[in-house]
Amino acid sequence: MEQSSSPMIAAPFDESFTMECEAKGNPEPEFRWTKNGQEFDPYQDSRLRTEDGSGTFTIPNNGNLSDFQGSYRCYASNKLGTAITEEIEFIVPNVPKFPKEKINPIEVEEGQSVILECNPPKGIPPLQIYWMTIDLQHIEQDERVSMGLNGNLYFSNALQKDSRRDYCCFASFPRIRTIVQKTAMSVVVKSTNAILERKPRLLTPSGVKTYTHLVKGEDLLLECIAEGFPTPNIEWVKVGDKLPDRALLENHGKLLTIPEVQDTDDGKYMCKAKNPHGETTHYFHVTVEEPPRWEFEPESQLSMIGTDVLIKCAVTGNPKPTVSWKVNDVPASNRRVFDDKIVLRSATSSDSAVYQCEASNRHGTILANANIMIMNLRPVIVTEDSQQYSAIEGKGVVLNCKVFSSPPSTISWSREDSADPVKGERFSVHENGSLEIHKIERDDVGEYSCIAKNTEGSSAITANLDIKGGLLEHIFCTYLVEDGVLQIINVSFRDQGRYSCVARTPVDQDIASAQLIVLDVPDAPEDLMLSEDYGRSAKLKWIPGDDHNSTTSEFIIEFEDSQREPGNWREVLRIPGNHASASLKLHGHVEYRFRVKAVNAIGKSRPSEPTESYKTPATAPDKNPENIKIEGHLPHEMDINWEPLTPIEHNGPGLEYKVSYRQQGVEDNWHEHVVKRHSFVVKNTPTFVPYEIKIHARNHQGWAPEPKVIMGYSGEDFPSAAPDDVAVDVMNNTAVKVSWTRVHKDKLRGHLGGYRVNWWRLRSLLDSRRFHEDKHTLTFPGDRGHALIPGLRPFSEYSLIVMAFNSRGNGPGSHAVNFRTPEGVPDRPSAFRAVDIQKHSVSLSWARPIEAHGLLVGFLLQYQMINDTEEVGPLLTINISNPESSKWLLQDLEPVSKYKLYMRACTRVGCGPAASEECTTSTEARKGNWKISEPVNASKTFHVIEGLEPGTEYTVRLMAKNWVDNSSIFEDVIRTKAKGISNQSWFIGLMCAVALLTLTLLIACFVNRNKGGKYSVKEKEDLHPDVESQGMNDDTFCEYSDNDEKPLKGSLHSHSGDIKPADSGDSLVDYGDEEGQFNEDGSFIGEYAGRKERASVEIKGTGQTAA
User: Fold this and answer.
1) Which of 19, 226, 515, 623 could be a cystine partner for 232, CB 3.0 to 4.6 Å?
2) Which of these, 976, 929, 938, 944, lies nearest to 960 by C-alpha position?
3) Which residues form the Ig-like domain (predicted)?
């Protein structure tokens, strides 16, 4: 049967998905499906596309794929049986998403470890993890910062530069073309005066050991990520063996990768994280397993009624697969099952069926169908009758006659002119019924008959053979001649010989000849023979093959261990090319086969045919283990490891190792243990004492020769004492020599690694306050009593300690010794600028150096002209003796000239490096003095300067207040706008005169109009309320408003027209009863304000609104 591969992933961008199920049979099979073990009919679902006469159906991607997710199985049946497919899992992946979450910032002190968890969502593999910033810049990874296999980002020790707010984990699922991002994470690393140095600790994996199971052919990935300070290094070993050559170390040594693991990669692996303060280990127990695999797949059979039928199904795998049998998809409960086979005794036609063998373990399932047909059937010749065959004289031809019958038929061929079967060396009848004729002759032309017979009957067909022309009809052209040049294509040894070129004219001819010699690799040696085989020695002889015109230089002898490693040929010996035999020393209990290759200048020959197998007798081992390593990972333990004997070196079954040890000079008797592994741990030992050790190999045949005794030490512990008499000799202002008395060897408690000097700066001698800077460490290997410490800062007070260390770690530190470094030259001034450049002078300003390295005694100013020519002016010097100076006016300069200026700070020791500046004097003297604004907040991006003159040129300079940040200096020349016509005084006067004249005309017109009225004053006032009175009644009287829509005084109106006009007939006499008073400027105050309030209340009551 043909089926779709499993699993089938429904990618969202694919248009459709085909579930294939095809089978052939006679009669034509019928198909049915199950989904998740339940009947499923794709023909009844209108959403699916089906094909007539086929079990295949197609799921279109119409947005409802999740309805079809599940495990499918197809069944093909006819009256002779039922065949089934393996399960096909149809997976509709969800779009993976990170959960929405609020992640609190991670705050750690400098030097501590940090783990940023990714926890990617589940999705269709493969999964790829990336750590990037918000702007998609990759997070740099190294020995200190790295990503684990689980996607987490590990910091072995955090530094201040790791502080950032946008650590983002991106998960990519390329199979569904999807990338998702996790909420950004923030890390805050707080500075500390001293980073705590510490031994390594594993961040991943946890515990002391891990058990790993993986499938043969997969990649083995073992990971160890450690924290500690200084950053630990990772080492990998395979316990009792060496790492395979194809092993790779990745991710800065933290990831061990072995691609396509094999059975030999099984075993115990160890990672070790080390730094100067100690180490930690983790063990991985790796088991290589295998999914079910066919050793013998059940085959379809056609058998006679009454015969015994054997159906075999042999599988291998690790863990051992479970095998189940079915007949037409029904458990074979009524069949006799013996281990890996079913036996049908005296089979009948009712036993005809499709037998299924299914094998499974935790790594997978395989299934095979075998069509078993039990019947008696006369021969049926499947090959078409009266077929025509053509052949070339001297070549061969095959006449087909394929037969189907039960029991099997006897097949014979005869010529048309004879009833007897064809005979002779040139005629061969194959098992499939075909007739092969070799070296055809002209007389072989004609008609042939194939006759098939069995107990049920017979059948026959005919075939006609025609003989074509000779070889010239099919000759291949391997020679090309063009312009007198003969070219031989694909040269071979048959082309070797003498070639002649003949040139002819009508009256003459000439001949030139050349000998062609063809070189090639030698032919393989022949007739290999083992002789003089005496137990574990033998002599191998052979006959060399043709060297093909290049002398054989040597022979390579290879052997195969047929029992342990069949097919793996290994070189055992090389001998000169003038020899044709070799004496071989062999290992015991090995089944050998040998072969030989010949080598010449062209290359190696094909290998010879191998010899017959020769098995040597078992003997005791010839040697003992080598490369014995004695290590002490813990103070009271001693680890003994050795390189095991290879399987071929065992010389026999039952290999074991006897480990013998005793404390040197203390014990006379040996402690002995027999083990099969390649390591042994001696517990409860004294700390770092010498032991004598020997490893003796043996097998069932006896012991190897007496082993050599080697010496090793038990586990180390930290040194218990500190160096004494630590003294400091100041060499100069940046280096000191430290000396000490060595730690006694009894206090080292291990192999001395050397000494470490830790020092830190307490303060500058210019500042009485003490501070604690970061510690600095220098390591000096070996047994020594002095060291040179460079890189110190002048004019500073320091403290240092000295400690011894071994492979276990550091011992206690000595008493701290304080010392002072002498004065040095200062750093360059932290800022140096020309702030006011005139025609003949330049104003200079500078700031003190950040590190003076002593008491400042002044400054040294140097300058010279550097106009754009090759010549420069003389270097002039000015000593500024005031150490508090920060400004200087440099005079007597040439106009329009470029100068280079140098400023150095000086102590009593000398002057330090120079800060430099370039400037060009102006063409004319600049007017005005510099004005300085108030300080501007650093967060602002602008500043308004007021009080400038119109139409005037100004120089504006922006500078840092502390004069340290040179990059903040900015200078530009601007010009203010000139006055417009509206700003001129004559224009303002003219406008005032026009306004006054207009006002006079308006007053005159108003007075003239009032004189022409004849109504009473009272009526006039009632008709025209006093504007001023209304204004006083307004609630907004004497109030200021920025509202552009405020009502004008006297513009109040009523919707009802009931507004009572203000009584302008009141006079000052009306207020005579009240205690009134005048203000100093003559205005009236007092109860008039109360009057106003009463009027306001009255107006509000009438429902006024502003127009």
Assistant:
1) 226
2) 938
3) 1-85, 93-186, 200-287, 292-373, 379-466
